[in-house]
Every structure is written in structure tokens, then in C-alpha cells.
Write a structure and sequence with these properties.
CATH topology of chain A: Helix Hairpins
Structural class of chain A: mainly alpha
Number of domains of chain A: 1
Number of helices of chain B: 20
CATH architecture of chain A: Orthogonal Bundle
Order of helices and strands of chain B: EEHHHEEHHHHHHHHHHHHHHHHH
Number of strands of chain B: 4
Largest interface: A-B, 44 and 44 residues
Order of helices and strands of chain A: HHHH
Oligomer: heterodimer
Radius of gyration of chain A: 18 Å
Strand order of the largest sheet of chain B: 1-2
Strand content of chain A: under 5%
Shape of chain A: elongated
Distance between the termini of chain A: 57 Å
Chain lengths: ~110, ~500
């Protein structure tokens, strides 16, 4: 059944979508200064990898990729949970979540 | 058939037998669940002692399994062999030292249950990485270790430096996770399986299609962040400086080793698999260049540092560069040398950080200038610190010299043109003596403002003593430990 779908939409389309999503996320991390937005951009990058996994899993007719995605989603959720807590903590300490204002530790 | 009150006890036997390969982790998992419960009770000191008991039993069990040359696998996801055992030994030793110095740590008193629980969870993640035979185990293990480390770095909630370090660690760690996950997805697409052996075969073929190149770059970049290799190292000094010092000890002595295991499991196995056709020279040269750049930049920046924690962080980066030589050369002997260096690094770097933590606990600052005249104020601690510094620089007859000697000699005797890399490493070692000796000079030669005695807490004294004895003993009497390293390296090469 999945193979039939894949014959209609070639795998390249999925890979191009995921590559585009990954690049948008990476540019967002590099350009944005708000900590929360950066966390969202990291989510974009993780989900780009997830799209890859799902596309390959469907294309190969193999369930392992989908298992990997479940793990990756759980990990991403944990990471955001900790991330928001850390940003809240920094907001309490400095009244900002702007990462450009974090300038105590410098070489 | 054993039975008790009509219950069939053989089932317990079966469960234990099935769980045997991950038994040390099972102990830590149980402890990680139970310890926070006691943190809510009236007597909070009990969490620390309970943690110490748990880590001691896990450590003892690991040593027993190694001594028994036990090997077994769990669900095709985790394999316990000599290599896994050796790495687990390293992680358990680090955890033991960190729990020991956290016994009297007053700043963690309020949430000590959570603190120890997070330490356990991070160590569980690392040990699962050590025995991973599948990309899924590897990924989940790395993330388990990383995510708990973010929380640990932020643990001193009211300290803005701790908060800032945690944000930097979180963002860089998250990006590196995403990059390496993308690389893993490409590997999965090319091989159709998530087994590390299949991945190694694919990398060993070295066909350099665009997917191969993108996947390799993403894996090196993603995991390079975790290991703090030089283009990806900027977070490490900030995090080590901002984190509570016991946590910095844990990160510098422990998590850093996890990065090496990932590189070994993905790339070194591929290089070994391709050895009959001359390895994958392009990638091995890439690692040689990364090693050279990492050690040089780490050492040069370390010279300019005034904060002792930042200096130790840059020295960690430089030491990572030395161990990276293993990936370039890829022989069994040099892997044994690399593992030996990782073991000695635990005690040298761990010991140095513990001294810093002990002095912090007594109100001494974190700058090298604060250490002036320390030899008069705390003679034994200063002597131990001197020992660690000279060992890190590689002065005979200390452990750092022995492990560096074996590491470098492995590169010299191997086939291939790695003499230049060894020459660079030796020059770097000489360079590093400058900034290590500066600490020793501050402690022993310079006059301090006061000669008032410092009394270091007992648990710190004990931890420093363990590190100092290990640093001297492994340098003078390296037979037994080298035997374990060689067995570990042989087990690693047998996995191909």
C-alpha cells in the first residue's frame, strides 16, 4: 500500500521538503535572538529529520524508521520541556530571553 | 525447581539472566527513581548516602562483570563486552567521584534528590551509548545524557552565570542533536537499517556520492559539538565556567568520553572494516586534520586564560585532540592507548576539577591569581593539584606521561604517514606545560595575601586522595590497567 503512494509522489519531493525545512530552521537559529524562537527553529530541524525517516521508511517498506521517529519525537518533547524551564529561569534572573544579552561568560 | 510459598522462583532467575548485560544500569535506574522520593523527607542527607551506596554497588558489579569477562546482549540493541565494560567503568568512576564530592555540597541541599537522580540518568545514557549496537540506542542514550546535563548545568538556579551557561549549552546541544539526527536519517535511507554494523559497512565502502558526503559532514559536525572539537568548541569553556563545579567535573571527566565512543562506534569501525582495502584515507585525513587543529587551538587559547575553570576547559579540548589521533591511525594498539588516555584523563582532569570545587566550597576564587600562596595554606591539596597539573602536561613518571607515550607510540609504529601528527602532538604537549606550570608557580612560588590555613571537607579530601593515588599508580604500574585496555580494544575490533 505505501509503495503505491510513493509511485505517485517521488521520494525526491519529500527530501527536498525536509532539506528546505532543515535550512529554514538552521537559518532561524543563526539569525534570531529570542531564545523561545530559537527553540522553535530547533524543532523545525528535528522535524525535517523526522520527515526524512518517515519518507525512507515508507519508500523502503520498513517499520524501523517509524520507530526511530517515535523516539525522536519523545526526545524533542523532553528537550523542549527542559529548554522552556531553562529559559524561564534565565528570564527570572535577567528579565529577558534575548540570547544577545547573555554576556557574562566570555573568553 | 525452586519454589517459595508456591511461587515459581525460576522466573526470577530467568529475568535476572536476561537483564544481566544491563544490570549495572538497572541498579542506577532504580536508584534514580527512589532517591528523589527521600529528598522530600525530613532527613535530606540520606539521599546522598543512598546515592553513594547505589553507585558503589553499580561500580562493583561492573568491575565484577569485567573481571568475569562477561559478554552478552540485550534485545539486539545493547551489547556488553570488554569494550562496553571498560567504558562503563570510566563512567561509573566519574559518577562515584562526583557523588562523593556532592556529599557535603550545601548548595544542592534543597533539591539534592533531583540532583542525584539527574546525575544517575545522565550516566545511564552514557553507559547505553557505550554498548549501543543500533542507531536508536545510540541516539536515545546521547539525548538522555545531554538533556539531563542541561538541567544539571542550570542547577544553581539563582546564579545568573549558571542560567546563562545552561542556555548556551541547550541551544548548541539542540542544534547538534538536530544536525546529527538529519545525518542519521540519511544513513538510514541509504542502508535501510539502523544497525551500526550496516552503517559501518556503508561508510567503509567510501563511494563519496553526495548523500554520503552530506551524511558524513552532518555526523561529524553534530557529534563534534558534543565532543567540543575545534570548529565546534566555543560552548565548552562557557558551560564549564558557569556550571556548578561538581557538574563541571562530571561534564569534563565523563560526557566528553561519550563523544569519543560515538565517533569510535560510527567511524572507527568503518575504518577498521575497510582496512583490507587501505581504510578510508580521505576521512582518516579529515580526522587527522581535526585532531591537529583541535589540540593546537585548545592549547594556544588555554595559555591566555586567567580563570582556572576556563583553562581546564581548553585543556580538555586539547586532550580531546590527542585522543582523536586514534581515529586517524585506526589500529588496535593505538585504540588501547586512546582508551588508557581516557582512563587517566578521568583522574587527572577529574582531580583538578575536584580541587577547584573543594577550594570553591571554602571561598577561594576561580582565578589562577587566587591560588597564590596556596602551598602554605593547604599544603596537601596544593601538592595534589601540582600532581594533576604535571600529569596533564605529561611529565614522567605520572599517569599522563604513560598514556600519552602509548598513544603517540601507537601512531609512530603504525603504517602510514602519521609522524607529522605525532610531532605536532609532542610540540603541543611542550606548549601546554607553560600554562599548567603557571598554576603550580602561583601555588608554590608566589606569596599569598594570607597564610591562614584552609580546611577542606573530608569527602573532598577522600576524592582528591583517590585521584592522586590513581594518577601516580597508573604511571608507575601500568601493567594491569593496560591489560584491560588491550582486552577492550580487542573486543572492539572483534565487533567488525
Amino acid at each position: 500500500m505505501p509503495r503505491k503512494v510513493m509511485t505517485m509522489i517521488p521520494i525526491e519531493m519529500f527530501l527536498i521538503l525536509s532539506a528546505a525545512l532543515f535550512c529554514i530552521g538552521l537559518v532561524g537559529v543563526l539569525v534570531k535572538t529570542n531564545g523561545i524562537v530559537i527553540l522553535m527553529c530547533i524543532e523545525l530541524m528535528l522535524n525535517a529529520a523526522n520527515i526524512n525517516f518517515i519518507a525512507f521508511a515508507a519508500y523502503l517498506g520498513d517499520a524501523l524508521g517509524q520507530v526511530f521517529v517515535l523516539m525522536a519525537i519523545a526526545v524533542a518533547a523532553a528537550e523542549v520541556g527542559i529548554g522552556i524551564a531553562i529559559l524561564l529561569n534565565v528570564y527570572k534572573a535577567k528579565k529577558t530571553t534575548d540570547v544577545d544579552d547573555l554576556t557574562i561568560l566570555r573568553w | 525447581m525452586m519454589d517459595l510459598f508456591g511461587l515459581d522462583l525460576t522466573i526470577i532467575n530467568d529475568v535476572v539472566k536476561e537483564l544481566m548485560p544491563i544490570m549495572p544500569q538497572v541498579i542506577l535506574i532504580i536508584a534514580a527513581i527512589i532517591v528523589p522520593v527521600f529528598g522530600y523527607g525530613k532527613r535530606k542527607g540520606i539521599t546522598a548516602w543512598l546515592s553513594l551506596a547505589a553507585v558503589t554497588s553499580a561500580l562493583a558489579l561492573t568491575i565484577f562483570l569485567i573481571y568475569d569477562s562477561y559478554s552478552g546482549s540485550f534485545l539486539n540493541l545493547f551489547e556488553f563486552n570488554e569494550f562496553t565494560g571498560f567504558m562503563m567503568l570510566i563512567f561509573m568512576l566519574v559518577l562515584f567521584l562526583v557523588v562523593l564530592i556532592s556529599l557535603t555540597e550545601s548548595e544542592n541541599r534543597k533539591h539534592s534528590g533531583e540532583y542525584f537522580s539527574l546525575l544517575f540518568v545522565a550516566t545511564i545514557g552514557m553507559t547505553f551509548v557505550a554498548g549501543a549496537t543500533d542507531l536508536i540506542t545510540l541516539f536515545v542514550g546521547i539525548e538522555l545524557a545531554s538533556i539531563s546535563s542541561y538541567a544539571l548545568v542550570a542547577f544553581r538556579k539563582n546564579d545568573p552565570r549558571s542560567a546563562e551557561a545552561a542556555v548556551k549549552f541547550l541551544i548548541i546541544g539542540g542544534v547538534s542533536t538536530a544536525i546529527s539526527l538529519y545525518g542519521m536519517s540519511l544513513l538510514y535511507g541509504m542502508t535501510g537499517t539502523t544497525e551500526l554494523a550496516a552503517v559501518a559497512d556503508y561508510l567503509a565502502a567510501g563511494d563519496f556520492t553526495w548523500v554520503y558526503i552530506v551524511a558524513v559532514i552532518m555526523l561529524i559536525a553534530g557529534f563534534g559539538f558534543k565532543l567540543a572539537l575545534v570548529p565546534f568548541h566555543a560552548w565548552a569553556p562557557d558551560v564549564y565556567e558557569g556550571a556548578p563545579t561538581p557538574v563541571a567535573t562530571f561534564l569534563a571527566a565523563g560526557s566528553n568520553k561519550m563523544g569519543f565512543i560515538i565517533f569510535f562506534k560510527i567511524f572507527l569501525i568503518a575504518f577498521v572494516a575497510a582496512q583490507t582495502v587501505g581504510g578510508v584515507p580521505e576521512l582518516q585525513w579529515l580526522f587527522a586534520i581535526l585532531a591537529g587543529v583541535t589540540m593546537t587551538v585548545g592549547n594556544i587559547i588555554a595559555i591566555t586564560q586567567t580563570s582556572i575553570k576556563r583553562m581546564l576547559a581548553y585543556s580538555s579540548i586539547a586532550q580531546a585532540g590527542y585522543v582523536l589521533i586514534v581515529l586517524a591511525v585506526a589500529t588496535e594498539y593505538i585504540l588501547a592507548g586512546g582508551l588508557f588516555h581516557m582512563m587517566t584523563h578521568v583522574f587527572m582532569k577529574g582531580g583538578a576539577f575536584i580541587v577547584v570545587a573543594a577550594l570553591c566550597a571554602r571561598g577561594i576564587g576561580e582565578y589562577i591569581s587566587d591560588y597564590k600562596g596556596l602551598a602554605k595554606r593547604a599544603p596537601l591539596v596544593a601538592a595534589a593539584m601540582g600532581l594533576f597539573m604535571f600529569s596533564l602536561a605529561g611529565i614522567p613518571p605520572l599517569a599522563g606521561f604513560a598514556s600519552k607515550f602509548i598513544l603517540f607510540s601507537g601512531a609512530v609504529t603504525a603504517e602510514g604517514t602519521w609522524i607529522w601528527l605525532v610531532a605536532l602532538a609532542v610540540i603541543n604537549s611542550a606548549l601546554s606545560l607553560y600554562y599548567y606550570a603557571r598554576v603550580v608557580k602561583a601555588m608554590f612560588v608566589d606569596k599569598g595575601a594570607t597564610t591562614e590555613k584552609i580546611r577542606v571537607p573530608h569527602s573532598f579530601k577522600f576524592a582528591i586522595a583517590i585521584c592522586a593515588v590513581a594518577t601516580v599508580a597508573m604511571g608507575l604500574y601500568l601493567g594491569p590497567i593496560m591489560e584491560i585496555c588491550e582486552a577492550a580494544a580487542a573486543a572492539f575490533f572483534a565487533m567488525v
